[in-house]
Specification:
With 188 residues, the chain is α+β, with helices and mostly antiparallel strands. It has five helices and six strands; from the N terminus they run ααααββαββββ. The longest helix has 22 residues.
Length: 188
């Protein structure tokens, strides 16, 4: 039986258009060739966007990089990293730390504190509940956070505490910034 090429072509087109409709229903994301129907407001970007962009352009670190840095610091504490890794991210000069164990104002004091924590606890985990970053002026970064600290001491006793922390961070000489102020206050 001889088929009419015109009819075969029309049937193929009808079948393909039906498949495209099914595909479109299954995938609500428009293809790159489909023009967007999303409403885009005309005019200038909002002031908050302009300010955020200006802050990002004027500083070595942006908000997301600083949040990443905070997570990196806690991951180093969680893994009981070598002291040399931590000293790279804490300033030596002008360091101010206030932790439940006392005040720390130098790398030497930091090393003593860190060794004491390591001797007392076999493991610990920091879970961030909230993190807010402010950049009040060029090169000056402020982090305000709440962290849930959980640990097992060397005798196997579990302990947990919620802590409010305030950090002041400055541009560092390397990849990461440096912490110059690290204040920890227990939340009762």
């Amino acid at each position: 039986m001889k088929q009419n090429p015109l009819i075969v072509c029309l049937i193929t087109l009808v079948l393909l258009s039906g498949a495209a409709t099914v595909d479109a229903a299954a995938n609500p994301i428009p293809s790159a060739s489909t023009p967007s129907t999303a409403a885009v407001p005309a005019g200038s970007p909002p002031a908050a966007y302009v300010q955020a962009l200006k802050t990002l352009q004027e500083n070595k670190y942006g908000e997301n990089e600083l949040k990443s840095f905070v997570y990196q610091v806690f991951s180093l504490f969680d893994r009981h990293a070598e002291i040399s890794q931590l000293l790279l991210i804490f300033a030596d000069e002008d360091l101010y730390m206030s932790v439940p164990e006392g005040k720390i104002d130098s790398h030497r004091e930091f090393e003593k504190w860190y060794a004491g924590v390591g001797a007392k606890y076999q493991s610990n985990i920091h879970t961030l509940e909230r993190i807010d970053v402010q950049i009040p002026k060029k090169g000056d970064y402020r982090v305000d956070l709440i962290v849930n600290w959980q640990a097992l001491d060397r005798e196997g006793k579990f302990t947990s505490a919620r802590m409010h922390q305030k950090w002041q961070i400055v541009d560092g000489g390397g990849y990461w910034p440096r912490i110059v102020s690290y204040v920890v206050e227990p939340i009762l």
